[in-house]
Amino acid sequence: MLLGDWKEANLRDVALAYPQFAVIEPPPTSGAILAWEGVLRPFSDCRELGLVLDDLRMDRSVRVQAGTLSHDAECTALHRPISFLHKLDPLKAEFRIAVLAYPPKRHPQAFGKLPQITKQGFPFHHHINADGSVCAYSATETNLPWHGKTVSTFLDYVAIWAAKHQVWEATGADPNAIWLGSVAPHTPSEILRQVGRNEPCPCGSGKKFKKCHFSAYERLRVEIPLQLLR
User: Fold this and answer.
1) What pLDDT band is residue 139 in, cutting at 50, 70 and 90?
2) What is the C-alpha separation between 227 and 225, in angstroms, rounded?
3) Coil, helix or strand for 221?
């Protein structure tokens, strides 16, 4: 897909799938080619909140519609009770998010603007990147596809991340707090172990890993430990 076509397709798709997100100017030094800002309310439909949280806990799929999570009507799992449900105030779970989109080979980024979600504010948070962007990718996902729904798919991931963050914060926001679902390391060494050379590159370009970012990850795998020794 050509870059211009990709931009137009994603602008249309986000307008339909996330109408509460407005197009904004990307920060001038960011390198982003598109940007949006809007509000996510992951628990605005909380009638089946316990079922949704249990599905997230067990890495089962949930429905995401305009950033709101709901139980999949086709789910046949036997759900277990949620012991921390009383600690949540789901109707107050609201996140103003800024999303930046980049040319191919670089994934979108999302930032928690209000409330501000940063490493400084949440030092024990393992799902915030060093630059303040949220680490929204599920451990069960291999790569983000590069197509006309890239950004709305990413926003679905961010909505699920926001729900998990709300639980983590409500249960202590410390090393003992609850993060729902599996986690997977994203260091260069871990990615090299997780992704085969002939599989799609995790960057979402659609190229094979060996013809895209393999050499960059291999270099970082060596350089990062050397930097730590200095």
Assistant:
1) low
2) 5
3) helix
